[in-house]
Every structure is written in structure tokens, then in C-alpha cells.
UniProtKB/TrEMBL annotation, chain A:
GO MF, one annotated term: aspartate carbamoyltransferase activity
Species this protein is from: Halorubrum californiense DSM 19288
Subunit architecture: Heterooligomer of catalytic and regulatory chains.
SUPFAM superfamilies: Aspartate/ornithine carbamoyltransferase (SSF53671)
Enzyme Commission identifier(s): 2.1.3.2
Classification via InterPro entries: Asp/Orn_carbamoyltranf_P-bd, Asp/Orn_carbamoylTrfase, Asp/Orn_carbamoylTrfase_sf, Asp_carbamoyltransf, Asp_carbamoyltransf_Asp/Orn-bd
Start and end residues of each Aspartate/ornithine carbamoyltransferase Asp/Orn-binding domain: 150-298
Key words of the record: Pyrimidine biosynthesis, Transferase
Protein's name according to its UniProt entry: Aspartate carbamoyltransferase
TrEMBL record, chain B:
Origin superkingdom: Archaea
Name of the protein in its database record: Aspartate carbamoyltransferase regulatory chain
Residues annotated as domain Aspartate carbamoyltransferase regulatory subunit N-terminal: 6-97
Cofactor names: Zn(2+)
């Protein structure tokens, strides 16, 4: 991968994705070999909105590469609440760290940050936009089970606001994947995402029900439908209930169906699914570590091409 | 043709934007940031019969030539327009507009949650795509409603 930043999944070619995932596999196979690889380097975790899980995942990945991490503390008490622009904030933090991870409520925030600083920027979620490191760990999970070609995937739930969905769908166009999108009418894919998918000639189909296609799927990727998306609570309960799965739903599925979820889940996947061979969402979350290690390693390597890699590792 | 030439020859120096899609003349002025207060002589013809378009608008601005970024955005709302540069009553240059690859700093993003609408020191940037423009920051696509998002 010859990239300075990771901002959107759409910037990634098939080769880029496979290179990171190959490295993630190597990391997972021999984590000790990477333990000091970036010793002395610092990763800044810039979270302008809370996301404990993603922050901890990056924090852990960085530390397993020998890095130290710094963060902004509580956003409410930081300079952000005093009205400092994002442009200024990242320019200041750039001087403190060798790479930035950014989570921000506005779409396009990571693009802006990437334009303002020279150190690598990883987009860890920009509003309803993109969350490409999540996509890489999703792809890693899919790849380990089924491979990424000749794949039939169903993506279900909130497709309109779900940034993990937007990133994943875009990345899958680099592979030979049939994508089915299952959602209520009001939460279909946004126009811009559908536009990109059609531009690439991707094979996509949209559905309102899972049942008619569940037996075709290799992977079912479930996302949460949030209460805030509905003007009235009864409507939410009625709609969300239709996109919930349990062990019985999966009776009709292929034996090797993989069920994924970006987590946290509320009740869209019943706990009885956890005990089936289909459940892969906890492994999926765990895969965030080797994948983010591989990603950080790649970006830092690109940013420091002179082989200034801390302890050099034979690979 | 003769009526057309007559209209064009009326200004001494400036720009005549001809073959503007009927109804877009005021948006053309908006793109150029002209509201009359600048003191340029401005004349606007609306719904003028045209062989090519059926009806067209014409905008004439005296003592003002257009910049490339103005022409770029113009091409999005008036793709058939011709731009005549007039000096000393003569049309010295006659150009059709061409679709640019992108426009910078002229349109505002319709997505209120876009970082370009936050209080950042940032110019908007849109890529021109098949039938509209797309925000470089948040990927929102603007189609027929481009004229409503001109921010000059
Ligand atoms: Zn935007």
C-alpha cells in the first residue's frame, strides 16, 4: 500500500487491501516479531466524539507495536470546546506524534486533517461518512472464512447512516462479490454510495426482507438500527423488529454462513446466535488488533521510507 | 442572427454570455457575484427565441471579463452557453464553455454535517461527475439543485 493516509475505503485498491491483510495475517501468526517495531514512536488518538471501543483497539494495536499513545482527554474540557478549529488542532498535535487517529462528528473531517498535516492520518469515523479501518478488519474476517472473491454477502440494517456499511460496500467492489442490501425503505443506501457502487459496475441488489435470500449468503453483516433515526418510538420498534435475527432465522442459512456485526449490538442479534457456528462478531472485533497493527505499520513505513523502523524485523 | 449580433454589438467592453438555458440568467449573475451595486452596466434578456435552445437567456456585463473558475461553474448550470468577450464593440473571443474537472470555492455543500460547513478555514471543492458535482470532503452529490448552492 503506497498511501500517506487512510481516509476512505474508496481510496484502496485490491492490492492495497491484500497487502494490509497479508501483513495482518503475519502479525497474527507471530505478534512477538512486531512487538518493538515502532518503539519510541507516538500515536495520537484524536477522538472528538466518544468511541471507547475503537479508541482502545487503536491504543492496544499501537502498544503492541512498541508505540506510546497520547489522547485529547475529555473533549468537553479541551481546546475544542473553546472553539479551536480542527485544522489548528491537528496541526498542533502533528508536532506531538508520529501518526494521528481521528474520530470526528463531521463528514469530511479526516480528509481535511489529511490535507493539513504531514504525518499519517487514519480516519476512525467521520460522521456518517467512512470508517475504513473497520472495513479492513471486516475484510480480514471475511477473507479468513471465505476469501474475498466469489463471495455473496448480505448487509442488513441501517444502510443509510451506517458508515461501516458504506466503507465495506465500497471496498468489496474491488473483489468479485455479490452484494445484497437489506433494510427498511427509509434506511436504504444513500445516493452517493449507490452512485459509487453503480460506477464500478458492482453487482448489488436491494431488498426489504432477509428471508428470500438468506440461503444464498456466505456472509450476513448485521448493523444496528438506531432509535434516533425514527421520528416516533412505535415506528422504531415496529421496523427494527423486522431486522432482528436469532438462531431460528439462521436455520434456513448455509451451514458455513458467517454472521458479522461491527458491535456494539443491542438486540438485533439474539444471544442464542452466539452459540451457533455462524457467530463471528467477537473474532471480528479481536481482528481489529492485528489489522490495525498492520495498518499502522504500513503507514509508518510509508512515512519513514529510510528504514528507520525501530528494531528491524526480518520478514 | 442579425438580431443576435445587434444585441452583442451594443456593449463596448465586457462579456456577453449567450445561449444560457432559459431561466438561469439570474443564477449566472449570482455566480458572477453581480447584484448591480458594483456599478457595471448589466443587461439581461430572458426567454429570447433561439434556434438552438427554443428559448434562451442572455447576460451582458460591461467592463467585466470572466475568470476561469467563474466559467467553470457557469458551465454546470448553462452547459450550452457561449461566452463572447467584447472589446471596443468587437467580439474578440467567442468560446463555448467546457465542463471542468472540478470547481473550487464557489459552491457550498448541501450536507449541513459536512466539515466544509463547520467553522474551518477551508474552501469547498467539488468534483464534476456524470450529471452533477460531488463534494470532495463528504462525497455528497449535487445534481439539478446546483444553482441553489452557489456561494459567492
Ligand atoms: Zn460536503
Amino acid at each position: 500500500m503506497r498511501q500517506d493516509h487512510l481516509i476512505t475505503a474508496t481510496q484502496l485498491s485490491r492490492d492495497d487491501i491484500e497487502a494490509v491483510l497479508d501483513r495482518a495475517r503475519a502479525v497474527a501468526d507471530d505478534p512477538a516479531a512486531y512487538a518493538d517495531r515502532h518503539a519510541g514512536r507516538v500515536l495520537a488518538l484524536c477522538f472528538f466524539e466518544p468511541s471507547t471501543r475503537t479508541r482502545m483497539s487503536f491504543d492496544s494495536a499501537a502498544k503492541r507495536l512498541g508505540m506510546n499513545t497520547i489522547d485529547m482527554g475529555d473533549v468537553d474540557s479541551s481546546s475544542v470546546s473553546k472553539g479551536e478549529s480542527l485544522s489548528d488542532t491537528v496541526r498542533v498535535i502533528e508536532g506531538y506524534a508520529d501518526a494521528l487517529v481521528l474520530r470526528h462528528p463531521s463528514e469530511g473531517a479526516a480528509t481535511l486533517a489529511g490535507e493539513r498535516v504531514d504525518v499519517p492520518v487514519v480516519n476512525a469515523g467521520d460522521g456518517a461518512g467512512q470508517h475504513p479501518s473497520q472495513t479492513l478488519l471486516d475484510l480480514h474476517t471475511i477473507r479468513e472464512d471465505h476469501g474475498l472473491d466469489d463471495l455473496t454477502i448480505g448487509i442488513m440494517g441501517d444502510l443509510k447512516y451506517g458508515r461501516t456499511v458504506h466503507s465495506l460496500a465500497a471496498a468489496l467492489t474491488e473483489f468479485d462479490a455479490n452484494q445484497h442490501f437489506i433494510s427498511p425503505e427509509s434506511l436504504r443506501l444513500p445516493r452517493s454510495v449507490r452512485f459509487d457502487l453503480h460506477e464500478t459496475g458492482a453487482q448489488i441488489r436491494e431488498h426489504e426482507e432477509l428471508d428470500p435470500i438468506i440461503d444464498e449468503l456466505d456472509v450476513l453483516y448485521v448493523t444496528r438500527i438506531q432509535k434516533e433515526r425514527f421520528p416516533d418510538e412505535n415506528e422504531y420498534h415496529r421496523v427494527a423488529g423486522e431486522y432482528r435475527i436469532d438462531a431460528e432465522t439462521l436455520d434456513a442459512a448455509a451451514d458455513d454462513l458467517t454472521v458479522m456485526h461491527p458491535l456494539p449490538r443491542v438486540d438485533e442479534i439474539a444471544p442464542d446466535v452466539d452459540d451457533t457456528d455462524h457467530a463471528r462478531y467477537f473474532e471480528q472485533a479481536h481482528n481489529g488488533i492485528p489489522v490495525r497493527m498492520a495498518l499502522l505499520d504500513t503507514l509508518l513505513e510509508n512515512a519513514n521510507p529510510d528504514g528507520d523502523e525501530g528494531t528491524e524485523v526480518d520478514r | 442572427m442579425s438580431e443576435h449580433e445587434l444585441r452583442v454589438s451594443k456593449i463596448r467592453d465586457g462579456t456577453v454570455i449567450d445561449h444560457v438555458e432559459a431561466g438561469q440568467a439570474l443564477n449566472v449573475l449570482a455566480i458572477l457575484g453581480i447584484d448591480g451595486a458594483e456599478g457595471f452596466g448589466v443587461s439581461v434578456g430572458m426567454n429570447v427565441p433561439s434556434d438552438r435552445l427554443g428559448r434562451k437567456d442572455i447576460v451582458k456585463v460591461e467592463d467585466r471579463e470572466l475568470s476561469q473558475s467563474e466559467v467553470d461553474v457557469l458551465s454546470l448550470i448553462a452547459p450550452e452557453a457561449t461566452i463572447n468577450i467584447v472589446r471596443d464593440f468587437e467580439v474578440v473571443e467567442k468560446n463555448r464553455v467546457t465542463r471542468p474537472e472540478g470547481v473550487t470555492g464557489v459552491l457550498s455543500c448541501p450536507n449541513r454535517n459536512c466539515i466544509t460547513n463547520a467553522d474551518e478555514p477551508i474552501e469547498t471543492r467539488f468534483d464534476v461527475v456524470a450529471d452533477g458535482v460531488r463534494c470532495d470532503y463528504c462525497a455528497t452529490i449535487l445534481r439539478s439543485d446546483i444553482a441553489e448552492h452557489i456561494d459567492v
